[in-house]
Amino acid sequence: MNLTHLTALELGRAIASGDVTIHQATQAALEEIAQRDQRLNSCITVLAEQAMERAEVLQKGLKPGLSPLYGVPLLLKDNLCTKGVKTTCGSRLLEGYVPPYDATVVEKVQNAGGVCLGKGNLDEFAMGSTTETSYFGPTRNPWDENRVPGGSSGGCAAGVAVGLAWYALGSDTGGSIRQPAGYCGLTGLKPTYGTVSRYGLVAYASSLDQVGPLCRDAADCAAVLDLIQGKDRRDSTTVDGNYGGLLASLNGDIRGLRVGLPVECFGEGLDPQVAQRVQEVAKVLQHRGAILTEVSIPELKQVIGAYYVLASAEASSNLARYDGVKYGFRAEKYKTLTQMYENTRSQGFGKEAKLRILLGTFVLSAGYYEAYYKKALAVKEQVSQGLERAFAACDALLTPVTPNTAPKLGESLRDPMKMYLSDLYTVPANLAGLPALSMPCGVDGQGMPVGAQLMGPRFGEQLLLNTAYAYQQETDHHKRVPRGGEGR
Amino acid sequence: MEETSKQVRKLSHLARLSLTPEEEGELAGRLEQMVGYLEALSQVEDGEAVEAPSAVPFRPDGVAPSLDRDKLLPQAPLMRDGYVVTPRSVGEGGEA
After folding, report:
1. What are the DSSP calls for A426-487, one per residue?
2. What residue of B is the nearest CA neighbor of A331?
3. Which of A180, A375, A394, A473 has its CA 20 to 30 A from that of A85?
């Protein structure tokens, strides 16, 4: 049995039954990291010693009735604060930052017996779709090391795909869980806004950010969301989603489920191979008893512009805190306070972060606020209404995750507009605060994974996970592993 | 382009960023491209005024432990006698 190819739940069961020790699992993952990660660069920090120590402690506490993920090692995106462990956000500005507290989701996975193996690489401050803007260098896609893993949770996605960990927690502001999951052949979920606490998640665009799981299949996603969801007094946007047990509710019965295919998501710019794979998903769902229906949501036309206005505006405000005063990097040379701020920020932020700060400052400045920011808010509202109308006619929407499969390294840096535009299928769920799931549905002609997205109404996580679960009962795309690994 | 560069200088001052001439040139070009793309938003109907997000319910105002000052202070890049050190903030010109 190759441990690193098991799903998180399979490993959890093997640990609970005593077939595998937590020490063995942690050791196997750390060996994999040692062998593969110098090349992939999935992890900014590897916690080898701490993970082994924790494995020993957890093994002693093993008893019946614990979490199904007890003892299962994981990766955390490096924008989730970890007490006593560096949290860099992929930026020079936080290169040496060691938080004095854990994010709520970190506490939750630890309370459930998680073993944190390391901190996953990401685009600087989660700003990007390729993990190439990280101060700590790009992550490579394990399916083809000349290609990007997607982003911004690219380190976590590449790591789980290649077997460095059994699951990961990422964050999704405009597709940062779903898109790398799609590019790396994983199942990833952005929950409904408010479902998961962001306390301890370094803020990018607070009206859009959500924490969620990157896993090998839908059942693992359900198990992780069961652990991390819930109201948190330290994040006032959280709500009690009353999900019950998501994992326990998976039965694969989707008979009568109305699945909508938005015509706007299958038009110009979509790679025909991606379109074909997603249409095949529709057929599989239909075979399981779902009813397919075509829907139209014309409001989706302006989503990219609105997203980049809102996200950049919020980023320019959120990133104002990095001034070199209380924590993080401070420039060495300055005379006045203003110089200290300017030099610190200029030397600390990378190019993409600077661009988004400038764009955000622009759209919020006098004379432009009405023309850009207010219009973007209007689009956000219209998209929410359009999706609400669609969900009156269907229960879930099926779309591609991205128009193409993973681009080559460097391609997106040369043509960033193309990269921004490739977010068009993922950002609507963030603008409307809705849950959306990405799952693998085959490969293209180059052998690169294609992702299909399921979007649901507010608090529709159970429906999405069960639909993906039904799909994965019929197919084995989620079981394929990148080159270099054996079939799971 | 000169107009854009001028605007980038103004924006970078507002955002407390000092850009090198190379950065300024590159970011001006990219910003111009993005703002050009965003022009499409002007066609968007304002519709009904977008309401401010509904206020979240207040939590009970209970006393709870906060982060430990002694653990937070060492995070500061420059600290002296338990204080964070910066150049003077009233008037400018003071040195750290």
Report:
1. THHHHHHT--EEEEEEEE-TTS-EEEEEEE-STT-HHHHHHHHHHHHHH--GGG---TTS--
2. B77
3. A180
Nearest CA in chain B to A377: B50
What are the pLDDT digits (tens) for A289-322? Answer: 999 999 999 999 999 999 999 999 999 999 999 9
Residue B12 Cα, gap to closest chain A Cα (Å): 6
Hey, is the C-beta of A369 within 8 angstroms of any chain B C-beta?
no
Q: Which of A316, A325, A372 sits opposite B38 (nearest CB)?
A: A372
Mean residue pLDDT of chain A comes to: 96
Mean pLDDT of A242-266: 96
Tokens at A173, concatenated: 């502001």
Best probe of the A interface among B4, B12, B34, by most A CBs < 10 A, is B34
Using alpha carbons, select from A333, A447, A486, A469 the residue that is nearest to residue A396. A469
Query: Is A485 or A206 the better-scoring residue by pLDDT?
Result: A206
Query: How distant, in Å, are the alpha carbons of A111, A162, A191 from that of A228?
Result: 10, 24, 11
Query: What whole-number distance in Å separates Cα of residue A123 and Cα of residue A155?
Result: 9
For residue A158, give Cα distances in angstroms to A149, A233, A321: 6, 33, 30
**Are the beta carbons of B46 and A302 separated by less than 8 Å?**
no
Q: Which tokens go with A130? A: 């390729």
Q: Assess contact for A249 and A281: CB atoms under 8 A.
A: no
pLDDT of residue B47: 67
Q: Is B76's CB within 8 Å of A326's CB? A: yes
Q: Catalytic site residues of A? A: 77, 152, 176
A·B CB contacts under 8 A? 144
pTM summary value: 0.96
Confidence of residue B49 (pLDDT cuts 50, 70, 90): low
CA–CA separation, A441 vs A478, rounded Å?
Answer: 8
DSSP A288-327: TT-EEEEE--GGGGGHHHHHHHHHHHHHHHHGGG-SSSSS
Assess whether pLDDT exceeds 90 at residue A29: yes
A475 touches chain B (CB under 8 A): no
For chain B, the C-alpha Rg in angstroms (whole number) is 22
Return the number of other C-beta atoms located less than 10 Å from residue A27's C-beta: 17
The C-alpha atoms of residue A334 and residue B5 are separated, in whole angstroms, by 25
